[in-house]
Amino acid sequence: MARRSSPEVNAGSMADIAFLLLIFFLVTTTIETDSGISRKLPPMQEDEVEPPIIKQKNIFSVIVNRNNELLVEDEPMEIGALREAAIEFLDNGGGTGPEACDYCQGPRSPNSSDNPNKAVIMLVNDRATEYGTYITVQNELVAAYNHLRDRSARRLYNKSFVQMEEDYDNVNYSGNKETLKEQIEEIRNMWPQKLSEAEPKS
């Protein structure tokens, strides 16, 4: 009895199918991107420049130890109270004359910051500080700046600062983008984010 030959599978179009599947997955797949902490590094300088002299009262010191405990202005503090303390420091407006702040709403204590443009928040971490604590402290300090920027944006332009930034990034925004950019820069100049991180202690 003669053997029957098995029918061959036509594999001629397999390469085309694989190529189409590859294109499909490339088009439909979304790539997750890690969102980091936005920080601007100081520019490189060829000549050594002496750092500016900052009055001690214009420095808000935040120290995080290896046990994830906070020492703020040499006083123990819970992380939950950090944002309010930073807002009070930045919004103090204790300066007089050319250093006066006409938009600050703080107590104007002569023992705290003169002006938001002179106020610096200095953060010092221990090398053994947990990463989660580090991020939480960073978030609270940045939230203090965001709160003050939002307050000024609502007072001046009747719109939240976050909404202003979203409108500027929106390609379909119908308003004047140049004017909006100037307004955003004005708010940022009123509350410049001066957050200094010192070398972690071991």
Automatic annotation (TrEMBL):
<keyword id="KW-0653">Protein transport</keyword>
<protein>
    <submittedName>
        <fullName>Biopolymer transporter ExbD</fullName>
    </submittedName>
</protein>
<dbReference type="GO" id="GO:0005886">
    <property type="term" value="C:plasma membrane"/>
</dbReference>
<keyword id="KW-1003">Cell membrane</keyword>
<dbReference type="GO" id="GO:0022857">
    <property type="term" value="F:transmembrane transporter activity"/>
</dbReference>
<keyword id="KW-0813">Transport</keyword>
<comment type="similarity">
    <text>Belongs to the ExbD/TolR family.</text>
</comment>
<dbReference type="GO" id="GO:0015031">
    <property type="term" value="P:protein transport"/>
</dbReference>
<keyword id="KW-1133">Transmembrane helix</keyword>
<keyword id="KW-0812">Transmembrane</keyword>
<dbReference type="InterPro" id="IPR003400">
    <property type="entry name" value="ExbD"/>
</dbReference>
<keyword id="KW-0472">Membrane</keyword>
<dbReference type="Pfam" id="PF02472">
    <property type="entry name" value="ExbD"/>
</dbReference>
